[in-house]
Amino acid sequence: KQEVTQIPAALSVPEGENLVLNCSFTDSAIYNLQWFRQDPGKGLTSLLLIQSSQREQTSGRLNASLDKSSGRSTLYIAASQPGDSATYLCAVTPGGKLIFGQGTELSVKP
Amino acid sequence: DARVTQTPRDKVTEMGQEVTMRCQPILGHNTVFWYRQTMMQGLELLAYFRNRAPLDDSGMPKDRFSAEMPDATLATLKIQPSEPRDSAVYFCASGLRTNSPLHFGNGTRLTVT
Predict the structure, then answer these.
(1) Among A57, A69, B8, B15, which one has the highest count of C-beta atoms within 10 angstroms of its own C-beta?
(2) Choosing among B4, B33, B37, B43, which should be mutated to test the A contact, i.e. which has the most A CBs within 10 A?
(3) How many CB atoms lie within 10 A of CB A59?
């Protein structure tokens, strides 16, 4: 059974700092991995999707990497801003449906 | 800007009552998902449709929950009878095709007293 783990559960950093969020999964047989952002009281917003054949994806200040063989992904946020404060979730797709981690709650202090 | 629309936004009901949640997926998307989110369990998949056909509802309590797509513009999730343990935020999401990025609605916050 696929399990997705995210470390740390919560993170607080000062504005401007570069940071890394971690995601690990137990079964490497995945089609893709997605990173989402969730603001309080809102739904999830897709940030990046990495296909199983890819190693990384970039969007603006965000960079996500995928190492299928080790069952790991990282989300790198450069020059963090208070507006980046949210919960970040990763999810893997064994085939169609997504299986989510519990998320990392990020707080960026001005 | 296309978005997934869920109604109602909030629902408070008494134990034993029927609850129906509705979702309008993004036009042209052929996959639709229902997820439930709680603090304890996180996001759990309840049901998954492709081209309106149910593919996976293994996460759904079959005795009280049902999910349908009467047409391509409407997905419903019904709970009958509701119980306090059903209190959660229920999200609908749609995707253009299998393994595409998912677009989530803002959820229905259900409280069963």
Answers:
(1) A57
(2) B43
(3) 11
Q: For residue B105, count other CB atoms closer than 10 A to its CB.
A: 25
pLDDT the model gives residue B85: 96
CA proximity to A79, closest of A17, A12, A11, A37: A17
In angstroms, the CA B102 to CA B96 distance is 8
A46 touches chain B (CB under 8 A): yes
- pLDDT category at B46 given cuts 50, 70, 90 is very high
Contacts of B91 in chain A (CB under 8 A): 43-44
- What is the predicted pLDDT for the residue at A31? 87
Instruction: Give bridge partners of residue B42 from the DSSP assignment.
Output: B38
Which residues, listed in sequence order, are joined to residue A81 by a DSSP beta bridge? none
CB-neighbour burial class of residue B56 (10 A; exposed 0-12, middle 13-18, buried 19+): middle
pLDDT band at A58 (very low <50, low <70, confident <90, very high): very high
Q: Provide the token pair at B79.
A: 């709970």
| A vs B: CB pairs below 8 A | 50
